[in-house]
Structures are given as C-alpha cells and as structure tokens.
C-alpha cells in the first residue's frame, strides 16, 4: 500500500504542462487529475496559486473570462519522462455573459465534455464566491456533475471579503443546497487566497481526492 501523500508535495516541483482548447489536445491520461471549476471572477486562478504556493503559476486577470482553455499543471513533475504524481486542471470560468455567445457555448461544451468523459479525473472542486452564494449557472454545473456521477466538493472563495455573520449565513445555505446533490461532498471548505485562509485544509482535501 502506497504511503499517503503529504502536503509538503506542494513545496516540490510544480510546472505548467499545456493548454487544451479542445479535447484532442488533452494530456495523456497517465496521472490522476483534480479539476477546479467556477464562475468567471470567482478567484479560481488566485486560489490555485495559493494552493501551490506559486504566485504566478495560474494566470490571474481583472478581466473575467480570460481563461478560455483547459490549463494543466504537473504536481511532483520530473524531467525524466516519469508522469507527475497528479495534475491540476484550471478550467475556463463559466457564466461570463460579456463573452460572445459562440465563445460561451464553446467553453461550456469543453467543460462538460471534459468533466463527463475524463477517466483519470478524481474530483472537481466547484468554487463559489462567498459574496454571492450559489447562482443558477452553478446549480446547472452541479446538476451536470451529479448526472455524470463525478465527485465534487464546494469551496467558498473570498471569505475575507464578507463579514463573519454574512459568511456563516452563506455557508449554511450553500451546505443545505449541497445536501440535495448526490455527487457533492457534504462539507464545505472556506478559503481566502489573500489571507491564506483554508489553504492547508484545501491541500489535504486535494491529496485525499488524488488517493481515493
């Protein structure tokens, strides 16, 4: 039986692998994958940077919808051709109304096809903005994951941007909604990329999913 992965793995080699604008450009399915999904401007890239301890690993922008492809990062990668311990997939932000309709449709198809058909995908982390809670487009993605039997866990982002009472109320409401979704993990993770809140818990959750 393999030894459990330790969070110190995030202090080791981490590198950008490739961007995949279409499914035929996906990496070889030779390592477990963890996906991060969320609405545009939910703070996904910032959270991935905080998770990995690399400020510039995932691109961040003040312009929502900048990430238009599936971006893959090797965790525990080496230079000798050996597959990484696992990969992180940074997915295009969904629900960005200002993008051209054809672009939005293209993103949605890419996201849906990847989530439903990727055999090495271990878990998806669905990011929800603490300031806004679950929106209709989030529920659509969660329902799709339920239907595809893809395990996912909800992560509240930007927890430092709201007062504690409001944060508690949002977390309670989101947790209640998660109970209605069969593929959702029952426990939320509350995070702040800026304050590094919940990052250690998220790292443990990622590693647990990789080894599941």
Summarize the structure.
With 212 residues, the chain is α/β, with parallel strands linked by helices. It is 31% helix and 19% strand.
Secondary structure layout plus pairing:
Layout: E1 14-20, E2 33-38, H1 44-52, E3 70-75, E4 86-90, H2 101-117, E5 121-129, H3 136-148, E6 152-157, H4 164-178, E7 189-190, H5 199-210
Parallel strand pairs: 2-4, 2-5, 5-6, 6-7
Antiparallel strand pairs: 1-3, 3-4
Keywords:
alpha/beta; 31% helix; globular; 7 strands; 5 helices; 7-stranded mixed β-sheet; single chain; 212 residues; 19% strand
Characterization of the model:
31% of the residues lie in helices and 19% in strands. It is built from 5 helices and 7 strands. Strands 1-3-4-2-5-6-7 form a 7-stranded mixed β-sheet, sandwiched between helices. The protein is globular, with a radius of gyration of 16 Å.
């Amino acid at each position: 039986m393999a030894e459990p992965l330790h969070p110190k793995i995030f202090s080791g080699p981490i590198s950008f692998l490739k961007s995949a604008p279409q499914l035929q450009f996906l990496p070889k399915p030779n390592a477990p994958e963890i996906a991060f999904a969320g609405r545009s401007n939910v703070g996904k890239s910032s959270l991935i940077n905080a998770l990995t301890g690399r400020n510039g690993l995932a691109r961040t922008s003040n312009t929502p919808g900048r990430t238009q492809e599936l971006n893959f990062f090797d965790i525990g990668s080496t230079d000798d051709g050996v597959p990484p311990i696992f990969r992180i997939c940074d997915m295009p932000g969904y629900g960005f109304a200002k993008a051209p309709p054809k672009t939005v449709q293209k993103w949605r198809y890419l996201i849906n096809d990847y989530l439903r058909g990727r055999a090495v995908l271990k878990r998806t982390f669905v990011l929800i903005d603490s300031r806004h809670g679950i929106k209709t487009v989030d529920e659509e993605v969660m329902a799709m994951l339920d239907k595809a039997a893809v395990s996912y866990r909800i992560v509240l982002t930007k927890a430092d941007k709201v007062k504690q009472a409001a944060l508690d109320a949002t977390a309670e409401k989101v947790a209640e909604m998660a109970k209605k979704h069969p593929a959702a993990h029952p426990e939320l993770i509350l995070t702040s990329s800026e304050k590094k809140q919940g990052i250690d818990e998220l790292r443990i959750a990622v590693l647990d999913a990789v080894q599941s």
